[in-house]
Design goal:
Blueprint lengths: L9 H21 L4 H17 L6 H4 L16 E6 L2 E6 L5 E5 L2
Antiparallel strand pairs: 1-2, 2-3
């Protein structure tokens, strides 16, 4: 059976990617005043990327928690450590770990 997923035009995908990057910039700038608003911006960016089937760039993926989707700022909402050739992010909101390879 054939999938009936509609393909999105590349122009819309480019606009969506710009919007995702802009939302992460806004989340970073607003974090000191309102951390809940920065979490909301991350949630909106994720929804846009899912709707248009976009991959969030690796640099931006490290800026939010994979479990609770809160915006991460080292020292404020997460701990960053290096263990066994991996960078370990520890979210202080949900108390879970994320491990990324370290080259």
């Amino acid at each position: 059976m054939k999938n009936n997923y509609s393909k999105k035009p590349s122009e819309l995908k480019e606009i969506a990617m710009k919007r995702v990057k802009k939302l992460f910039e806004e989340a970073d700038s607003v974090f000191t005043e309102d951390s809940e608003l920065s979490n909301r911006y991350v949630a909106l960016a994720r929804k846009i990327s899912m709707r248009f089937k976009l991959k969030i760039p690796a640099k931006l993926k490290r800026k939010y928690c994979k479990h609770c989707y809160s915006y991460l700022r080292p020292g404020k909402t997460c701990r960053v450590r290096i263990q066994n050739d991996k960078v370990v992010y520890y979210c202080l909101n949900c108390k879970k770990y994320m491990r990324f390879p370290y080259k």
